[in-house]
Design brief:
Pfam family, one: PhzC-PhzF
InterPro entries: Phenazine_PhzF-like (IPR003719)
Keywords: Isomerase
Shape: globular
Number of domains: 3
Oligomer: single chain
Structural class: alpha+beta
Strand content: 35-45%
CATH architecture of the largest domain: Roll
GO molecular function, one term: isomerase activity
CATH topology of the largest domain: Diaminopimelate Epimerase, Chain A, domain 1
Number of helices: 9
Number of strands: 22
Protein name: Isomerase
Radius of gyration: 27 Å
CATH superfamily of the largest domain: Diaminopimelate Epimerase, Chain A, domain 1
Length: 352
């Protein structure tokens, strides 16, 4: 809206903000064609002066109420390569935002997990995790992604950070890559954090035929069907890692199962360099297949520890993106320590 001496002239100028202006002077000079069409008059020149009374006060008020842009990064977790592993959006908040806003942002990113951090001291943050559909208490790969973002951005001077989650305080350590793999020349780093160990238990009467239909595999290839204690996932063991890779999930069937989702695992081929393969499906959370799931390995570690009689594992999640986890089962403290790398692939700002 532009106010003139004879009233108000309605004018849409895409190259001028919505702030109100006072029309000061017209003269006949050349204007862009778009303005000729809008004014429906012969070419003119005009000068605008921002109205300095109540309208300028309103503009100032609107600016003071506007939220600061939120910086974010998209980080691929449990991988050394971009576009592999499991992506998570990491949002660094300068002020708290409500749950509805966070859920809307997670839906907008539409990847398996979006997390939101608030710094509360030099090396301590609050963190909240959202899938595209709901908030969850804890997420392994988003924890790794958030840690990578914090360590890489210089937000902390320490090699140890703490996250306050809905499930308690989670400590993450930064470890030089050379100290994890002897002979490694990479100057990068791993991140290590621990989750409570989860032990698969027997199901009362597992329906093998239903499970085989849901995974589109032969019933004969199913070795065991269990469920996890902490997350109530269906836990399916197949005859081999190759069978795990060949699973063609029937999402409409998997979503009917109780609990969070369905874990599939099998022993890895000896030439692969891994101990076991796995995949994880969680359509109830809006994640048909999770590319790499840290928390699923809390039950995978305890299961394979009994089978292989060891506590240290090199695990591969055989999704289309793939992901690598180094795992240690601390039997005394009943903790599963997860180590992984991450890669930042995108940075930007949320403007709303």
């Amino acid at each position: 809206m532009i106010a003139s001496g004879r009233g108000a002239l309605k004018l849409h100028l895409p190259f001028i903000s919505s702030t109100r202006f006072e029309l000061v002077r017209f003269s006949k000079l050349a204007l862009p064609p778009v303005l000729h069409q809008t004014l429906r008059v012969s070419p003119i020149h005009f000068e605008l002066r921002q109205r300095c009374a109540s309208s300028s006060s309103l503009a100032s008020e609107n600016l003071s109420m506007a939220k600061e842009p939120v910086k974010y990064s998209v980080v691929d977790a449990f991988t050394e390569s971009a576009f592999k592993g499991n992506p998570a959006a990491v949002c660094l908040l300068d002020e708290e935002r409500d749950r509805q806003w966070k859920q809307a942002v997670a839906a907008e990113f539409n990847i398996s997990e979006t997390c939101f951090l608030n710094k509360i001291s030099d090396s301590r943050f609050t963190i909240r995790f959202f899938t595209p559909l709901t908030e969850v208490d804890l997420c392994g790969h988003a924890t790794l992604a958030a840690s990578h973002a914090v360590f890489s951005s210089g937000l902390v001077d320490s090699d140890v950070i703490e996250f306050e989650t809905l499930a308690g305080v989670l400590t993450v350590k930064k470890i030089p890559a050379k100290s994890v793999n002897i002979g490694e020349t990479d100057d990068g780093f791993y991140m290590e954090f621990g989750f409570p160990a989860d032990h698969p238990v027997e199901l009362n009467s597992p329906e093998i035929s239903q499970v085989s239909a849901a995974l589109n595999v032969k019933a004969a290839s199913i070795v065991e069907v269990k469920k996890t204690k902490n997350t109530n996932d269906i836990f399916v063991v197949l005859e081999s890692g190759a069978a795990v890779k060949e699973v063609q999930p029937q999402i409409d069937e998997i979503v009917k199962y109780p609990g969070r989702g369905l874990i599939v695992t099998g022993s890895a081929p000896s030439e692969s360099g891994f101990d076991f393969f796995s995949r994880f499906f969680s359509p109830k959370l809006g994640i048909n297949e999770d590319p790499v799931c840290g928390s699923a390995h809390c039950s995978l570690a305890t299961y394979w520890s009994k089978k292989l009689q060891k506590c240290d594992f090199n695990a591969y999640q055989a999704s289309s993106r793939g992901g690598v986890l180094k795992i240690h089962l601390d039997e005394q403290n009943q903790r599963v320590l997860l180590r992984g790398k991450a890669v930042t692939v995108m940075e930007g700002s949320i403007l709303v």
